[in-house]
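Internal ticket #5521
Category: modeling
Description: The requester needs a full-assembly model to guide mutagenesis choices. All entity lines are attached below as received. Residue total reported by intake: 648.
Assigned to: D.W.
Attached entities:
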Amino acid sequence: MSLAARFRLDRPAFSIDVDLSAEAGEVLAVLGPNGAGKSTLLGVLSGLLRPDSGVVRVADRVVTDVEGGVFVPAHRRGVGLLAQQALLFPHLTAVGNVAFGPRAQGVPRREAEARARALLADVLPNGASETLADRKPAQMSGGQQQRVALARAIAPGPGLLLLDEPLAALDVDAAPAMRSLLRRMIRDGKQTAVLVTHSALDALVLADRVVVLTAGRVVERGPTREVLGRPRSAFTARIAGLDLVPGVREGDGLRTSDGALVSGRASGEIAAGDDAVAVFPPSAVSVFADEPHGSPRNVVAVRLAAIEPRGDVVRLRAAPRTGGPDWVDGLAADVTPAAVADLGVEPGSDLWFSVKATEVEIHAVPV
Amino acid sequence: MTTHAPRTRRPARSVDSRHDAAVGFPRWLWVPAAFAFALIALPVLGLLLKADWPRMPELLLSDAALDALRLSLITAAISTLLCILLGGPLAVILARGRMRGLRTLRSVVLLPLVLPPVVGGLALLFLVGRTGLVGRGLDLAFGITVPFTTAAVVLAQTFVALPFLVVSLEGALRTAGRRYEAVAATLGASPGLAFRRVTVPLVLPGLASGSVLAFARCMGEFGATIAFAGSLQGTTRTLPLLVYLERETDVAGAVALSLLLVVVAMIVIVLGRPRGTEGLL
């Protein structure tokens, strides 16, 4: 067990009481609304906050044990942090920033800088590390800064890396590339990490397991796809807000467990046979009473489980038909009230859900 | 994303002033504003007009003038160094400390800013003078008397200049925030290492402008010096004291030395103005 934390911290208007863990090399996503206690959690893990009671173990070492009187200060924990803001030291070059951690551990300058250059070459796109390595942060874009910050965070070889909404401050162009970079460096690099995020997509792509935190308590936990695919708390449902279909990558889509092919656009490189998930918004789903023909769409037979009014749309929840594929369970389709009236359906009716291939994104997911 | 650079940037000006139709200000403000500007600029202009330019080299190179200039530069440099060595740590504690009573401490530190310097000089005299609280001990134990020595000049200048350095450095430390230090800690840097490699480099601009301001204050120091150190040529008679003395006997000499101090002040403004004065006065 590379991370085991069970602690309680009380403040006048807020208390957090959690118990969570991660295996070595595992990424644990922490989802939760604002004020759920995510920052407090990170503060306790990194050693910037002292809990009122409890024990925190990182890489099999007790770093906080209130009852036992143990409190290892932040700089001796081996817990790294990548925050929303890159927070690169403005007076140091990219190499100087990345070499900072190893230098602090006593690695000789030359060796630390060689390691920093190698890491920069790893996190920056082809050739960019040559030009950026000796630049100060002010001369880099936000996306480049965040990449350098990632290199800096993993350079000391932390036993645990905390990722505090690492994509939230990036613009829409930079976020997807950074997401795949995180996937490569953290997941594929077997870096034990805790990822705090608002985004179901980040959790899906980066995390093995998820805990959902609400008002300082863990309300849901489990493998990412299960928790997000069948949300049990209102928050998870809202944050998930997406239809997910698990399967393996094949051709230009994804093969589900029952052999159906869902076509979509791959996000990033995914090898055939890799575990993947097809993701699409409920608003992209069209609903038919009879099987539609002749259009390049993904179509699946479902049974209507529930009708949920949501503002000016109506969300139709799917359940499997008898003998039909069970991965449709929980799929949502947002349609107008007029469309519901036209269909004349009620829970238990048989329907066809259909979604255009262009609306479906295929993401690689943790095994 | 250069916005987290720790130094405070001046707000971006509207470049397109030809099209800028932003809400203005009442035009009558121009009148008092013009008077205010004139009050600052005209006296300096008067000095320039009054100056005896042909005799300028002779006036500035007199023994008394050179002695005073040398003494002023040396004492101001030493005092500035003392301000950095003593005021730097004080600023760190004021900005980063979490104990109670820091607010009171800060108010006390600001005292020399608002206190008439001559009062400060008297207070120093009563403290370090031969019969004073500390002075008596120094005299009995080591035979040291501080008042009316060059050391007294340095002490007086440090007393009045310290708050300038402390305030601008504290501001720089607060602007830089603790975030970078927290990041340094997560990278394994001990508090000492984080201070040396992160905090100090981050506040270097603030430290520089604070030092320049402190130096300027030292160069101009008059009241505390004359009360505590007297006016002995070569020992305690700094430039401002000489200007005051010559004013009665040799007006041309006083003007020449005044212009010298104006030049020093100008250099200080060019070097230290942008960040140093923000939030200070």
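Resolution: model delivered.
Comment from assignee: The mean pLDDT of chain A is 88.
Ticket closed.
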